[in-house]
From TrEMBL:
Protein name (Swiss-Prot/TrEMBL): Oxidative stress defense protein
Signal peptide: 1-22
GO BP of this protein: DNA damage response
Organism: Vibrio hepatarius
UniProt KW keywords: Signal
Keyword field contains Lipoprotein: no
Length: 231
C-alpha cells in the first residue's frame, strides 16, 4: 500500500517555530499563513514633546525647564484637556563638558530636559495643542502618532480577514495538489505587540492645517498560522 505523500505549503512565513512544528507532523497536512488588514480613519492622536535647556548652572537649567513644562500644562488645563490624558517625565539633568586636546575636561554648563506626552481625543485640536506647546517654550517634538479609539473593532476585522485568507489559501492549495482539505489541526496565533499606526513628525515652527491629519489613514494588520489535515 502506497503511503500518501505529505504536502507542505509554507506561504510567506517568517515564524521559524511554526515551520519546524509543521515539519514534525507525521500525517498528511498543509500549513498556511493568513494575512489581513483593515484601513481606518484616525480619530485621535498622541504626541510627545520635549523641552531641552542648557545653562551655566544646574539650578538655572532646572528652573527654565520646569517653567516651560508648567506653563504648557497650565495651558492644556485651560483648554479642558483631562489630566488623565497628560503625563510628564521627571527632570533629566546632566553636566556638559568641553574636551580640549590637552588638559582636563572643562565644565561648561548643565543640560536639563523634560518630556510631556499628550493624548488628543479630538483630532481637530491636534495642531492647536502643538501651537500651545510652541508658545510655552517647548522646543522639540519627539513623536506624533495617529490612532483610532475603537482599535479592538478594527483589530477583530483584520483578524477575521487573516482567518479567511488562511482558509482560502489552504483550500486552493489542497485542490491544486489533488487533495481534500480536512479539519484544522493546529492554530498558531500571537497578537501583534503594537498596533501599526501612521506616524507624522512636525517641526515646531511649521504650520499645518488640521485636515492634513484628518485625511490620513491607518492600516491595521493581523496574521494567523494554521496547519490543516489532508484527507
Amino acid at each position: 500500500m502506497k503511503r500518501v505523500p505529505t504536502v507542505i505549503a509554507a506561504l510567506l512565513t517568517s515564524a521559524l517555530s511554526f515551520g519546524a512544528m509543521a515539519n514534525n507532523v507525521d500525517f498528511p497536512h498543509l500549513s498556511t499563513s493568513g494575512y489581513g488588514e483593515v484601513v481606518a480613519t484616525p480619530d485621535m492622536a498622541e504626541f510627545t514633546v520635549r523641552v531641552v535647556e542648557t545653562t551655566m548652572t544646574a539650578e538655572q537649567a532646572k528652573q527654565s525647564v520646569d517653567k516651560v513644562v508648567s506653563d504648557f500644562l497650565d495651558e492644556l488645563t485651560d483648554q479642558d484637556v483631562s489630566k488623565d490624558n497628560i503625563t510628564s517625565s521627571n527632570l533629566y539633568l546632566s553636566p556638559q563638558y568641553h574636551y580640549p586636546k590637552e588638559g582636563k575636561p572643562e565644565l561648561v554648563g548643565y543640560r536639563a530636559s523634560r518630556t510631556v506626552n499628550v493624548t488628543v481625543d479630538d483630532l481637530t485640536k491636534l495642531n492647536q495643542y502643538l501651537d500651545i506647546a510652541l508658545n510655552a517654550g517647548i522646543n522639540q517634538v519627539d513623536n506624533i502618532s495617529l490612532k483610532v479609539k475603537d482599535s479592538a473593532k478594527y483589530r477583530e476585522q483584520a483578524r477575521m480577514a487573516a482567518i479567511k485568507d488562511a482558509n482560502s489559501k489552504a483550500d486552493s492549495l489542497a485542490k491544486g495538489f489533488g487533495h481534500k482539505l480536512g479539519s484544522v489541526w493546529q492554530i498558531d496565533y500571537n497578537m501583534p505587540s503594537s498596533q501599526p499606526v501612521l506616524m507624522r513628525s512636525m517641526a515646531m515652527d511649521a504650520k499645518m492645517e488640521s485636515n492634513t491629519y484628518q485625511d490620513s489613514t491607518i492600516v491595521i494588520r493581523d496574521r494567523v498560522d494554521v496547519i490543516y489535515k489532508l484527507d
